[in-house]
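Lab channel / #folding
Pinned by the channel admin:
"Please post every new chain as: sequence first, then the structure tokens as a reply. Keep commentary short and put observations after the output so the thread stays searchable."

First post following the new format, from NK:
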Amino acid sequence: MTTASALTRDDVARLVDHTLLKPEATPADVAALCDEARDLGVLAVCVSPNMLPVDGTGLVVATVCGFPSGKHASAVKAVEAATAVAAGAAEVDMVIDIAAAQSGDFDAVRADVEAVRAAVPAPGVLKVIIESAALSDEAIVGACRAAEAAGADFVKTSTGFHPAGGASTHAVALMAQTVGGRLGVKASGGIRTAEQARAMIDAGATRLGLSGSRAVLDGWTA
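Reply from TO:
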């Protein structure tokens, strides 16, 4: 596992999804996000699906699906994801039905992810948001296993919109242990400093979802 101490500022930038998912975001805000992303040298931008297409020159373009509640019919999530891919999204971050995971109905979680996976065929990347702060350890493990069985590429901690909170090093470590390097682990939600980002990477995060990317990268020292 890569340790944060081995990474330069530019290495960390290549782990970042520079994110703008505020409901009030305008096309001008998204254009500014993309310009800032190129200036920072990050890997990707992540924007709301109705903001697509964007000028993603030099960037990976990501979006969200079933966001932020996850309480959408799987067929609706699949249509949303397919529409986003057609509009230029290379990666889709979907939200599972959190209640299904909380109640241990991991067959339902798997079916939900499978529906979206079918709409995001390779080489498209599918990340599965499990809202880890709202789940027990057992539910985190079960949701990650369901996501892997359904063909996901990443599991992701959080939307950043749930009142239970965002990413934690405990959840990231548990998720990384569960997927065992077969899937990526995206830490997102509440990561605002280089120290927090360093802790997430050391816990096993292979991607970071950040809205305050500049502050994190400006604070990074190898």
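NK: The chain has one domain: 9-218.
TO: also worth noting, The chain is about 40% helix and 15% strand.
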